[in-house]
Design brief:
The chain is mostly helical. The chain folds into 4 domains: about 100 residues, no CATH class; about 190 residues, no CATH class; about 90 residues; about 80 residues, no CATH class. About 40% of the residues lie in helices and about 5% in strands. The chain has 18 helices and 6 strands. Strands 1-2 form a two-stranded antiparallel ribbon. A two-stranded antiparallel sheet has the order 3-4. Strands 5-6 form a two-stranded antiparallel ribbon. Strand 3 and strand 4 form a beta hairpin. It is elongated.
Length: about 575
């Protein structure tokens, strides 16, 4: 190996020592040279493009050059990298915080779309208020880029959507506005010129946006837009706070989503970017009229006039469906069901609970069958109600004599909040299926006032059961008592413990008595008896109280379950 002279490993061919970068010396006074000297803070709620334009103008470079300097190479601004780029520049110019990338109202619209399965499309660029841009320190608001930002709440005028000279929406592209230093009130777009020199760029628009006239709007339209903005702000900031509509209470989130559902029913959300501001303002006005209506009759008239709250549509579907594609807004369902209450049958009034403080659609549960998603109705009062209603409850609503009236009351009470057919309820309670078809005729007649009065009484009794759920599951007892052999054996053993031997008729009477006490039904509905047969009675030698107590202990029941119960 050839030997090298000392120091040759530190020298190049020229024999000179290579240049070595010296570390920057510390500057006294704590000045940090990693930051840029001029601070450009952000305004509250400022649009990212607005702040980048102001920073570029302050340093007298184009926004494109600013992005290049801050990121060490060419950068094309896009929704995917805006947050990263603006944060890096904010750190360099010592801004208190990065600019606003999205406003609360757009966030609330996205939550609504995700909750109700609606499709949306973002609109590029921003509208503007000429009077706001005329301020001494003008800047573009982030809310101006919102999907439903149609009005300036400060000056109570409609926002201007496009520049009147070039016809473009400001900041509608991610690259053209970054190539020029411009003032906040100057249109940042290029003109679409048909005649220009070959291989030359289009001229800048440079329209003074402060001189543009805002579209006129009536006080009613402006008030409707302000109501929408207030609802969206409340839904975004405190979605669980209490809000009111007519005489019903709802949450702020439900109220905000009710506005959006009504607007979407008139103009689908995926068409909002292509729809004129005037048409959207009209849709907002209809939504505001419905939600702030002072009566259900007014709601019904507005729905019929504007074609909203469609009972068979996807926003407020009234009738239960086999497949529920979209969830339903509780506030809109209350408004629509309340407005349709006068046109619903007794069974439908009970199902939708129109006599309650908050009409609602019956809850449906989802299950899978063979790879398919199926929904089925629920029955809130199942197990709470005996086949024959308790003595003394709602007796003034019974027209038919005998057991059919209390049995019809039990069917009606079981129907409250349930989408299960009345015939299925009757079979579950051990009642004849034909009775389900005659509930309205048996209870209070067929007149509308009688049905509404009955619905209110049933709703009040249902509320009492909700507050104090019965300790007895009557549906389970009816299912158990279908085994008449088991009931008969318990009746015979209970009588034998009293040293009473039962003949055939006495055995039948004891079985019927125990079956009635156990199920809460009536002897007429006992399957042991043949229609038209007289009801056998319990033998006189049998102590009824002790017999029923012993027989109940011999039949299946809960640990602390009483034989009989009545609502408090």
């Amino acid at each position: 190996m050839n030997e090298q002279p000392a120091g040759a490993d530190r020298r190049g061919r020229s024999g000179r020592a290579p240049h070595r970068a010296r570390p920057l010396r510390e500057i006294p006074g704590g000045f940090d040279i990693t930051e840029w000297p001029i601070s450009v803070p952000t305004f509250d709620g400022e649009l990212a493009e607005s702040w980048l334009s102001r920073v570029a103008a302050r340093y007298q470079v184009t926004p494109s050059a600013l992005l290049h300097l801050a990121n060490g190479g060419p950068v094309t601004l896009s929704p995917a990298n805006t947050a990263q780029v603006t944060t890096a520049i904010a750190n360099l110019v010592r801004a208190r915080k990065p600019p606003t990338l999205s406003n609360e109202q757009d966030d609330e619209i996205r939550r609504w779309a995700a909750t109700y399965g609606r499709r949306t499309r973002k609109r590029q660029g921003a509208s503007f208020c000429p009077r706001c841009l005329s301020d001494p320190t003008p800047y573009w608001r982030a809310e101006w880029s919102g999907a439903l930002s149609l009005v300036c709440r400060r000056h109570r005028v409609l926002l201007v959507e496009t520049c009147p000279t070039c016809g473009k929406r400001p900041f509608g592209t991610h690259s053209s506005w970054t190539q020029r230093i411009s003032s906040m009130w100057m249109c940042p777009s290029r003109r679409d010129e048909d005649i220009r020199a070959h291989r030359t760029r289009r001229a800048w628009c440079e329209t003074d946006l402060r001189t543009v006239l805002a579209p006129p709007a009536s006080p009613t339209e402006l008030d409707a837009m302000l109501l929408l903005h207030e609802a969206l702000d409340a839904g975004a900031q405190a979605p669980r706070d209490v809000a009111t509509a007519m005489h019903w209470t709802a949450t702020s989130g439900e109220r905000a989503h009710a506005y959006l559902e009504l607007i979407d029913e008139q103009v689908p959300a995926n068409r909002w970017p292509d729809t004129s501001a005037r048409e959207l303002v009209s849709a907002v006005g209809v939504a505001a009229q419905i939600i702030t209506a002072d009566s259900l009759e007014h709601v019904e008239a507005l729905a019929a006039r504007h074609g909203v709250l469609d009972p068979v549509g996807s926003h407020t579907p009234i009738w239960p469906k086999e497949h529920d594609i979209h969830p339903r807004n509780p506030l809109l369902m209350s408004l629509r069901l309340g407005s349709l209450s006068a046109h619903l049958s007794l069974s439908q009034q009970l199902m939708y609970r129109t006599a309650s403080e908050r009409p609602r659609a019956p809850v449906r549960v989802e299950h899978r069958a063979g790879g398919r998603r199926l929904t089925e109705g629920t029955w809130p009062a199942r197990g709470w109600v005996p086949p024959v209603l308790w003595d003394g409850e709602l007796a003034d609503h019974v027209v038919a004599a005998g057991s059919y009236g209390p049995a019809a009351l039990s069917l009606a009470l079981s129907k409250v909040g349930s989408s299960v057919p009345l015939r299925a309820i009757a079979v579950d309670l051990g009642l004849p299926a034909w009775l389900a078809d005659r509930v309205a005729a048996i209870l209070g007649g067929r007149s509308r006032p009688d049905q509404e009065r009955l619905a209110r009484s049933l709703e009040q009794l249902f509320a009492r059961l909700e507050a104090n759920p019965p300790p007895v599951n009557y549906s389970k007892r009816v299912a158990v008592a279908r085994d008449l052999a088991m009931v008969r054996a318990a009746a015979v053993e209970a009588a034998a413990l009293q040293l009473v031997a039962l003949d055939e008729r006495g055995e039948a009477g004891a079985t019927v008595a125990l079956w009635v006490a156990y199920t809460g039904s009536h002897p007429r509905f006992c399957p042991l008896l043949v229609p038209g047969q007289s009801t056998p009675s319990l033998p006189p030698r049998v102590d009824r109280t002790d017999f029923l107590r012993i027989g109940f202990q011999l039949l299946p029941h809960g640990e602390r379950e009483p034989l009989a119960w009545s609502p408090p």
